[in-house]
TrEMBL record:
One record GO biological process: fatty acid metabolic process
Family from the record: Belongs to the ATP-dependent AMP-binding enzyme family.
Ion transport listed as a keyword: no
Recorded superkingdom: Bacteria
Pfam families xrefs: AMP-binding
InterPro entries, sorted: AMP-dep_synth/lig_dom, ANL_N_sf
Gene3D superfamilies: N-terminal domain of ligase-like (3.40.50.12780)
Listed GO MF terms: medium-chain fatty acid-CoA ligase activity
Name of the protein in question: Phosphatase
Domain AMP-dependent synthetase/ligase: 3-330
Keyword entries, A-Z: Ligase
């Protein structure tokens, strides 16, 4: 299993901007030292890990997996009232926070980074195969989590390592949050092959990030659509990055013109560019576009990953995925941690899609991302796609059954967008509105924060 890190003893495991470089053998020693801090109760327990992109978080994560405990991953900077709500809901046995200084009611500090529950009241046991709990809602503090098994984590890490052709010479730099399924999958797949992790909290917009990237010879870069919008502004294609082998994109749809632009960069520089599709409910990733097919499949999310399959619901055209990386189910209370595998490896994605004769999937929108204007059913994702393709700028759509709201970051485009939408969809100007924001609101994983946009409805 990828968390058995000691087997790569002499290889470099972590290179960090905030800590000394360590080998896999030294990482295992830190894991052993951390496990010694945790009281040995003899039964499986719940650990809440407040994450950052640092060696301490990685150590605690691996330690929990090795010890057989269930670990709940949350942003270490989550707003305190939201964090306390989750703590009250799940009553973790331990709270681990390498940098958090907040005192938790009902817990005492048993070591420099570990808080232990004084009295534990959850009556149900934890399902033996439950390994990791990931939030479904970014930074909103929802108590709804995805329940992932050890087999889910291992299967997805193996599939990713296979299609990305990973080996022990990889040096992956952290560009995504540890607790985000995409970011976590990068860590898991590289631990599996014994590659090195270049760990930093620096932003891709900072000079420090690129200095670290070049100095430590990073071999890959991972990003969500927003990452690639920023990379385009940074003139990524003109950067001298001789160590870079490939770059990957997931976490939402990247506009076809950007897909083509980055694919051209990859071809010109002899690199590989992977466009991928996934959900937290499938541990991380479900599909990828082979780089040699990307030019002709720029608007597709690709074919199923190794050991996975896709099909469509015959009535609704909902995309259904089957594979060993499909979650056990959801949890919304502490009692839900006792539940077993409720899905049997089958995930109804909630995405509407088409599949071509070669098995390539084309996402057409979310089943719930619809509004009705004067009885006309409108797909908000499709409206965004049309505008992005036409104007090559990021937009976000929300609304209700009486008003469509379109947001852009370019105030100068309001008039032309208004006229384009009016003509394209034959809408009266009173039924929709185009507004400009300095920055479209995004969640920690780079996806659009539609709930915040919804709050802007008049």
């Amino acid at each position: 299993m990828f968390w058995n890190v000691g087997k790569y003893s002499e290889r470099t495991a972590v290179i960090s901007t905030a800590d000394k470089d360590i080998t896999y053998g030294e990482l295992q020693q830190r894991v052993d030292d951390f496990r010694a801090q945790l009281p040995m109760s003899g039964h499986k327990q719940l650990v809440l890990l407040l994450c950052a992109n640092d060696t301490a978080t990685l150590t605690a994560y691996v330690a929990c997996l090795q010890a057989g405990h269930a670990v709940m991953l949350l942003d270490g900077l989550l707003e305190i009232t939201l964090l306390e709500h989750i703590v009250r809901t799940y009553e973790p046995n331990w709270i681990v926070s390498p940098s958090h200084v907040h005192a938790f009611e009902g817990y005492y500090k048993s070591s420099s980074t570990v808080w232990m529950k004084q009295e534990f009241s959850r009556t149900a046991d934890i399902y033996p195969d439950l390994a990791v709990l990931l939030s479904t809602s970014g930074t909103t503090g929802s108590a709804k989590f995805v329940r992932l098994s050890y087999a889910n984590l291992q299967a997805n890490a193996q599939s990713i390592a296979t299609y990305l052709q990973l080996n022990e010479t990889e040096r992956a730099i952290t560009t995504l949050p540890f607790q985000y399924s995409y970011g976590l999958s990068v860590i898991n797949s590289h631990l599996l092959v014994g590659g090195a992790l270049l760990i930093t909290n620096d932003s891709i917009l900072s000079r420090e990030f690129w200095s670290f990237f070049k100095d430590q010879k990073a071999t890959s870069l991972s990003g969500v659509p927003y990452t690639y919008q920023m990379l385009q502004r940074l003139r990524f294609g003109q950067m001298e990055l001789p160590s870079l082998r490939y770059f990957t994109q997931a976490g939402g749809r990247l506009a076809p013109n950007l897909v083509q632009s980055f694919q051209n960069m990859a071809v010109e520089s002899g690199r590989r560019f992977y466009v991928m599709y996934g959900q937290t409910e499938a541990t991380a990733r479900m599909s990828y576009v082979p780089p040699n097919r990307l030019a002709e499949k720029a608007d597709s999310v690709g074919i199923a990953i190794p050991n996975g399959t896709f099909r469509l619901d015959e009535v609704s055209s909902e995309l259904i995925y089957e594979g060993p990386n499909v979650m056990l189910g959801y949890a919304e209370t502490g009692e839900d941690l006792a539940k077993g595998d409720e899905l049997g490896g089958t995930l109804h994605t909630g995405d509407l899609a088409e599949i071509d004769d070669e098995g390539y999937v084309y996402i057409k929108g979310r089943m719930k991302r619809f509004i009705k204007l004067f009885g006309l059913r409108m797909n908000l994702d499709e409206i965004e796609r049309q505008i992005e393709v036409k104007f090559s700028l990021p937009v976000a759509c929300t609304g209700g059954d009486d008003l469509l709201l379109i947001f852009t970051e370019d105030e100068s485009k309001i008039a032309v967008l208004t006229e384009y939408v009016r003509q394209l969809y034959k809408l009266h100007v009173s039924s929709f509105s185009v507004k400009a924001l300095p920055n479209l609101p995004r969640l920690e994983n780079g996806k659009m924060n539609y709930l915040k946009l919804k709050d802007m409805m008049p």
